[in-house]
Specification:
The chain is an alpha/beta fold. It has a single domain, classed as Rossmann fold. It contains 9 helices and 7 strands. It has a 7-stranded mixed sheet, sandwiched between helices. Helix 5 links the parallel strand 2 and strand 3. Helix 7 packs parallel to helix 9. The longest helix is centred in the first third of the chain and has 18 residues. It starts with a helix and ends in an 8-residue tail after the last strand.
Length: 224
């Protein structure tokens, strides 16, 4: 696992070493559904919110403004992205509100990273399509979501209702950035929810350009 983590860290740093400076300006045109994800988190007063693979910190800033009483946490495997996230949070006046750390999405612990038993809300935005073992990342994120909490995910879908030329071109372009939409993501969300005794919600956005999934955990965890 350590070798795999190091290799992916190096790859992500190589991908984002220069891109991080223009990431938010360019990605706002095609990372659709991020704000809808944040609006639906419905964070309780004083609740804890974790973003897995937080990138530039853009979503944490949005969440912080939407939920001013929330306690915010984030991690990313890329040290380059974390450098940009810290600078963005400082400019937004949120440096003291958000705890950031480097970690691997496929193997993390709320307690080990942040001294938290779990998080009221966990979200993953357009990152599973870049994580090789994305199923492990999704499973790990749910395990760190508190009873009664919510895990939310948004990512590229299969563009089933869009013209074939558009889908083919988009997938070829995304592949240049090591991005691969996960065809099995909707089924994985449902399967994890069923395993956990939780409730799943799925929405296919913008003619299946993106998929937004939420897992609402029960107040009492299901027996293992």
């Amino acid at each position: 696992m350590a070798g795999t983590t190091t290799n992916h860290d190096q790859l992500m740093n190589a991908v984002y070493r220069n891109q991080r400076f223009i990431y938010d300006v360019t990605r706002k045109y095609y990372l659709l559904g991020r704000d809808r994800l944040i609006e639906g988190l419905d964070v309780p007063p004083g609740g804890s919110v974790l973003e897995v693979a937080c990138g530039t910190g853009r979503n944490l800033i949005k969440a912080g403004r939407a939920y001013p009483d929330a306690r915010l946490y984030g991690f990313d495997i890329s040290t380059e992205m974390l450098t940009t996230a810290r600078a963005n949070l400082a400019r937004a006046g949120m440096a003291d509100r958000v705890q950031l750390i480097q970690a691997d999405a496929t193997d993390f612990s709320a307690d080990t990273l942040f001294g938290q038993p779990a998080f009221d809300r966990v979200f993953i935005s357009y990152s599973l399509s870049m994580i090789p073992d994305w199923q492990a990342a999704l499973d790990c994120a749910l395990r760190q979501t508190a009873p009664g909490g919510q895990l939310a995910v948004v990512d590229f879908s299969q563009q089933a209702d869009l013209p074939r030329w558009f889908s083919k071109g988009l997938l070829a372009w995304l592949a240049k950035f090591h991005v691969a939409p996960r065809r099995e993501l909707p089924g994985a969300v449902t399967q994890l929810a069923d395993r956990d005794g939780a409730r799943a919600e799925l929405s296919h956005l913008y003619r299946d350009y993106a998929v937004l999934g939420r897992i609402h955990r029960a107040d009492t965890p299901a027996p293992s």
